[in-house]
Amino acid sequence: MGILLIEKAGGVMRLWMVQSEDAKGAAHQLLPQILRQEYGVERPVFRTLPGGKPVLEGSALHFSISHSGSFALCGVGSTPLGVDVERIKPRRPNLPRYALSEEEFQWFLDRGSRWADFYTLWTLKESLVKYTGQGLNCAPRSIAVPLLEPGGCAWKDGRYFRAWGGEGWRAACCGEEPAERERLEQVRSEYGKESEE
Hints:
It is a single chain. By secondary structure, this protein is of the alpha+beta class. It has a single domain (2-187), classed as CATH 3.90.470.20. It contains four helices and eleven strands; from the N terminus they run ββαβββββαααββββ. The strands form three sheets. Strands 5-6-2-1-11 form a five-stranded antiparallel sheet, covered by helices on one side. It has a four-stranded antiparallel sheet with strand order 7-10-9-8, covered by helices on one side. The protein has a two-stranded antiparallel sheet with strand order 3-4. A hairpin with a 2-residue loop joins strand 5 (62-68) and strand 6 (71-77). Residues 80-147 form the 4'-phosphopantetheinyl transferase domain. One of its GO terms (cellular component) is cytosol. One of its GO terms (molecular function) is holo-[acyl-carrier-protein] synthase activity. One of its GO terms (biological process) is lysine biosynthetic process via aminoadipic acid.
């Protein structure tokens, strides 16, 4: 299993992305391991808020996890955040028209109607609803996000957005604070592997 570490410096937000045959399992293993190894939270207890957002009981830390295909993404920070990762795959041809605002749809068309561009916008939308904790309880096209390419970042409505992308995947985060510096690198790690304890 390889790990891509997407790290935001300054102690505000740190992100880890794992590629695994069991991405869902990896996402759920990754969070407790990160909390224990990076933040000293030995036995994390989680609860769910009324809107469905999971939170860490008795801690000032915030987190968000996502998985799609063989990819798992986990974010932990000192302020609220939301993350999303999606495997790029063709979908129903009318999905972009349904899910994107007029401005977003025009941007999508102008760029050649590529599924990779749709997924960049979709991960930004998902990261926003995970940040707010409200979930996708409204028409996706009513959720406004900045028009970003992978590697781009922007502020919109007082929130910081960042998009990433690679071969076959797109990812995004939404939070309250920008990063002082960011990096995306391949690293060797034990994250996402079963603990031997």
